[in-house]
Amino acid sequence: MTLRYGSRFARVQALANAQFRLLLSSQIASVVGEQVFAVAITVSVLNAGGDASTLGLVLAVRGVALVIFLPVGGVWSDRIPRRRIMLAAYGVQAVMAAGLALASTLSFWAAAAAVFVSGVAEAFVRPAFNGILRGVLTEDERVSGRSLISVSVRTGIMLGPALCIALVAVAGTRSAFVVTTVVFLASAVLFWRVKEPSWSPAPRASFASDIATGVAEARRRPWVLAILLFSTVSLMFVLAPTQVLLPVVSTAHFGSPAVYGVALTCYGIGGLAGGLLTMAWRPRAVGGVAMVSMALYAAAPLSLLVSGSALSIFVCFAVAGAGVEMYAIQWEVALQREIPDHLIGRLTSFAWLCSFGLMPFGQALTGPLAELTSTGVVLGVAAAIVLVVPPCLLLVRGMAKFRTSSPGDAPL
Questions:
Q1: Contact 78, 207 (CB under 8 A)
Q2: Mean pLDDT of 149-157
Q3: Which residue, among 318, 322, 319, has the nearest Cα to 330 in the 3D structure?
């Protein structure tokens, strides 16, 4: 299959790789399982009499698990075979879902414990999966492979909740947990067939030393450190506030949360489009394209700030989703290309911690900030940050091409 437009559009080669096809199939199954599980837990908590505060606390446990265990998962994915970690994580998730399916009732504590276990498993899966993906894909396959993974994730995120709601409506939440069990078992079976490429694990040292080695690797590459720092800032003051205030603005200005739901769907569709575009397009200055793409996210908070019409919000969220996905794919491909095999797990865990692990805390901070200032101020600051900072980051050495050193790079 070939997608071309001039000399900068590249052949989609990753699907010809049998090992990658197994990884992709396993990823699709696991994403659907995660989404079905999340919605089933939400419905179970509400059916048991939980309110919004209770549900928020239960779901926030995932963020706590990620913050605690992402560094651990990164270190261990650089120490032991990553395939073994993936099989163990999927097995734990399958057993957990099976236990929930067999339980007669689901208490709030049980729901929180299940979410915590799911978060711990995710903290080990993320760095281990990226490590295996790095070894399976050749240099020519990295962009198309990472884009296909992104498209599969976006598709699973959109289909998983719909599947769960249908299951719950027809046969109750227990059926959703049964399907979750089957899906995670399928992920494990698919991963069992993956042949992990040979690699040399990092020399065994203390946990603190392993973490310090990963931090030193990021500091040695200014563009990597700059992205990690920017990810933390944008998460806390751009992405999280926009997500929290979207339903608030939807209800206040349009009298219904329907705009909220459609906007999220448009964001997912935009991300899907961004993944497909990145799969086809091979720009020379990938870092420059990534920074411009990230700046497109400003459309989301700006649309909520103006709130002219529901249609404008839908369009802006689609643009924002496309921009974030294009940025994220190029960033992840650059990490796989530039970071040594024995360090990729740790750098992946740092990147995920900065990008997603702190999301619940950014969401919790949004309300107090909006009360202290106003919704408009919070959204205005969010838009300003994502419009101004990414172009400025292009001044960092190596940022324009997402490379530590390149013959065409001149010192800044």
A1: no
A2: 84
A3: 322
